[in-house]
Design brief:
With 378 residues, the chain is an alpha+beta fold. It is built from eleven helices and ten strands.
Length: 378
């Protein structure tokens, strides 16, 4: 059992942290207020190797491991959670399923565009009427000659406004789990941006509702076996949850550091509030839970690197890290007092950014169901 990060891991952390500190943190409040993401994010993150962290070098990626990926997402999210989720989706929900289920032609066509940041990827599973019960989707795909014809609506699609490739899930048969996965380039005739959501947090990342109306793609754009798309979606989410756990750790770490700094500077009753036991206990709890969340996240990433099923590890990490981040941002706002409610202070943004980590990639309730099934041997 080795808890020491490798020299590569230390290098990744240092590089991404310095980038986040220099390029993301100074402007993050502005981007949040304006709800715009900088056009330079994707090419710059691609140049740094952060959009294809575990994609092999032969396909234009960095060729690193999943632990490196977790570290990168954590540090990006420390700088701005919007940049963190942009990279997490491209890595975990776009590149990963192509790596695992794509044909050699699909890998050679799409990964060299996604990994270096020439293209941005997105993941379209959820629908207006199907969230946690993803198998209740109503979007259909019918094979007509040499084309698949997609019809339906997808909701809460991160990166979709600027994406060039979507991983889309659609019903291809009458049974509940007759679902298949497809690679849909954007733009494609019949694919429409219906609505950009006005969100509580992570506002520099776009989240879209998409419409598919007689949207035709080549027959060879089927990803994985026909009728096995639900398996592809669930296994992809196992890896995706590592990214959201890492994002949660980054947000929590930022909140902790802001709270620590404020507590040392803020004077009440004649001394810094950091000298008050009530504040010290809050900081102690935050530090302890962040350490635990980080270790659980790296454990899940390590399991992915071993090539073994990591459903349980990923759900444990995502559940604990997201809820630990909730407690961290809440206490950070409390330590700031009235200032924590003011948009001039970073903790106000962190409070809003954190909330969705308990919802996307599977709600906390879904994570508890997954974990319970694992411990009960189901």
């Amino acid at each position: 059992m080795d808890f020491a990060p490798s020299s590569t891991h230390e290098m990744i952390r240092k590089m991404v942290h310095e980038f986040a500190e220099r390029e993301l943190r100074p402007e993050c409040l502005k981007w949040d207020e304006e709800q715009t993401y900088p056009s330079w994010w994707v090419p710059k993150l691609g140049e740094l190797g952060l959009l294809g962290v575990f994609v092999p070098e032969t396909y234009g990626g960095a060729g690193l491991d999943a632990v490196s990926y977790a570290i990168a997402i954590e540090e990006l999210s420390w700088g701005d959670a919007s940049a963190g989720v942009l990279a997490a989706v491209n890595n975990g929900l776009a590149c990963d399923p192509i790596l695992r289920w794509g044909t050699e032609e699909q890998k050679a066509t799409y990964l060299p565009k996604l990994a270096p940041g020439e293209w941005l990827g997105a993941y379209a599973l959820t629908e207006p009427g199907s969230g946690s019960d993803a198998a209740a989707m109503r979007t259909t795909a019918k094979l007509e000659g040499d084309e698949w014809v997609l019809t339906g609506t997808k909701a809460f699609v991160t990166n979709a406004l600027h994406a060039r490739l979507l991983v889309v899930y659609a019903r291809t048969g009458p049974e509940k789990y007759d679902i298949s996965a497809f690679l849909v380039p954007k733009p494609t005739k019949g694919l429409t941006d219906l609505k950009k959501e006005n969100k509580m947090g992570i506002r520099a990342s776009d989240t879209m509702t998409l419409g598919f109306d007689d949207c035709r793609i080549p027959k060879e754009n089927l990803l994985g076996p026909q009728g096995k798309g639900f398996n592809v979606a669930l296994a992809t989410l196992d890896g995706g949850r590592i990214g959201i756990a890492a994002q949660s750790v980054g947000i929590a770490q930022a909140a902790y550091e802001e709270a620590m700094k404020f507590a040392k500077e803020r004077v009440a009753f004649g001394k810094p509030i950091a000298d008050l036991q009530a504040i010290q206990f809050k900081l102690a709890d935050m530090a302890t839970e962040i350490h635990a969340a980080r270790l659980l996240t790296y454990r899940a990433a390590w399991a992915k690197d071993q090539g073994v099923r990591h459903t349980q590890e990923s759900s444990v990490a995502k559940l604990f890290a997201s809820e630990a981040a909730h407690r961290a941002v809440n206490e950070a706002v409390q330590i700031h007092g009235g200032y924590g409610f003011i948009k001039d202070y970073l903790v106000e943004k962190l409070y809003r950014d954190q909330r969705v980590t308990e919802i996307y990639e599977g709600t906390s309730e879904v994570q508890r169901l997954v974990i319970a099934r694992g411990v009960l041997g189901k």
